[in-house]
Design brief:
This protein has 4 helices and 8 strands; from the N terminus they run ββαααββββββα. The chain is of the alpha+beta class. Strands 1, 2, 3, 4, 5, 6, 7 and 8 form an 8-stranded antiparallel sheet that branches.
Length: about 140
């Protein structure tokens, strides 16, 4: 499995507050509306239900991310269902003074020989997750 860590994002809120928002997916629908317009275009085919995020991905189709891990206040893990390869998203939080340092990462099971071809795009996606969370919390 290859792990692609996204941009670390500093959020000006206590770690417990950020964890509470990230670990409860029912709050995400209203958060999407507060994301800057340029980031919202990535979320047009996204819905939130209970512990799942449903996404319609071009060229792949419907995918669901389901929360599989919660370790308060530092970690939320989601696994993809319907992805062409095993895929997981992890969101790690660390306290940094009065702020929170958020690090998203994508764990993707792809053959080593394909990593040079797709690794750059996967890294870009991991970084966009960081941008998304920064846009949600640092407005």
């Amino acid at each position: 499995m290859a792990i692609y860590s996204g941009k670390k994002v500093k959020i000006g809120r206590p770690v417990a507050d950020v964890y509470d928002k990230i670990s409860d997916l029912t709050q995400y629908a209203s958060l999407v509306e507060s994301v800057p317009e340029e980031m919202r275009s990535y979320l047009k085919d996204v819905s939130f239900e209970g512990d799942t995020i449903k996404i319609n991905v071009p060229a792949i189709g419907a995918m669901t991310f389901r929360v599989t891990e919660r370790k308060a206040p530092s970690h939320v893990g989601l696994k993809a269902e319907g992805a062409p390869v095993p895929l997981a998203l992890a969101i790690d939080l660390a306290e940094e003074g009065d702020a929170t340092l958020l690090t998203p990462s994508l764990n993707l099971e792809i053959p080593a020989m394909l990593r040079p071809m797709v690794g750059g795009k996967v890294q870009e996606l991991a970084d966009k997750f960081g941008d998304f969370f920064g846009g949600v919390f640092n407005k």
